Structures are given as C-alpha cells and as structure tokens.
Amino acid sequence: MKEKLKKIGKNRWELPMGSRKTEPKMRVPARLIGTKKIVDWAEDTAIEQLTNVTTLPGIVRYAVGMPDIHWGYGLPMGAVSAFDEEEGIISAGMTGFDINCGIRLIKTNLPYTEAAPKMRELINGLFRNVPSGVGSKSKLRLTPGQLEDVMTRG
Fold first, then answer.
1. Helices in the chain by DSSP H: which ranges?
2. How far is CA 110 from its chain centroid?
C-alpha cells in the first residue's frame, strides 16, 4: 500500500481514492502526516487500517494518519477523522484502549541548555503529576456539567 502514497506537500502524503481495491471502496482519500522516514517506518497494517477508516459512512474529507500512527484493534491508533453529524458514525474504537496515548508538546521559555541537565527530573515530575497508563486515575473530579463544558469549550 505504501507504494501508492503520493507526496502532496512538505511532510504530507496521500493515498488517493481508488488505492484500495477490495470492498468496501474508499469514500475519501487517506492522508499521512510525517517525514519520509516516519512514513517508511509506519506499519503496512496501520496504513491498511487507515484505508478501512476511509470506507466508513459519513466520513468527511480525509482519514488522516498522524506521525505516531500504529496498528490498532481494527482501526489505527494515531489517526484522526471527522464524520458528518447526520450521516456519520460515532466510533469509540477509534480512540483505542489507551486514550491520549498520542504525541504531546510542552512549550516553555526555557532554553535547551538550561532544560537538558534537568530533563530526567522534568520527565519524572510529569509522570508523577499526569495520570497515564492502564488503570491510572486523577485526583481531579468533574461534575457532569463541568465535563460537558470541557468537552465543548475546552
């Protein structure tokens, strides 16, 4: 499947509609975001699973594989898709079993030269304070109204 990828911009690749020859047919193209090295590293099974996403009812514009795309349980982890409110689906399975396993970025005003010697300490502090992994919990509790607010307004 990788041989059908076409570079469409800096770090952007596309599997055009028609790349998948089996039923059901692609409704939209699939896109991958990443350098050539990342795309070469991506598992063929994950890319095949990304084409599976393109066949889902109500998908809008593209199924997108992010730089951390990897094989999942029927659908790839590290993928993003939007679905039409009326014609589309809701797929909890696209989230996976390790919700928020994706890439994170913390931007600070610290120069690398100051942060580098304390990197281990910084990482350990993050792991102590940010719940992660199977069965992890947070001390933060939200009411249903607060959760709705976070989900709709951030």
1. 36-41, 44-53, 112-115, 119-129, 144-153
2. 28
Token pair, residue 124, equals 């350990």
Alpha carbons 31 and 146: distance in angstroms, whole number: 35
Local structure of 80: helix, strand or coil: strand
pLDDT tens digit string along 16-35?
A: 998 888 888 999 999 999 99
Give the list of residues 6+ apart from residue 103 with CB closer than 8 angstroms, or none.
Answer: 66, 67, 68
Spatial contact of 34 and 7, defined as CB atoms under 8 Å apart: no
pTM (predicted TM-score): 0.63
Of 27, 26, 37, nearest to 2 (Cα)? Answer: 37
Total number of domains in the chain? 1
Identify the domain containing residue 58 by its residue range: 2-153
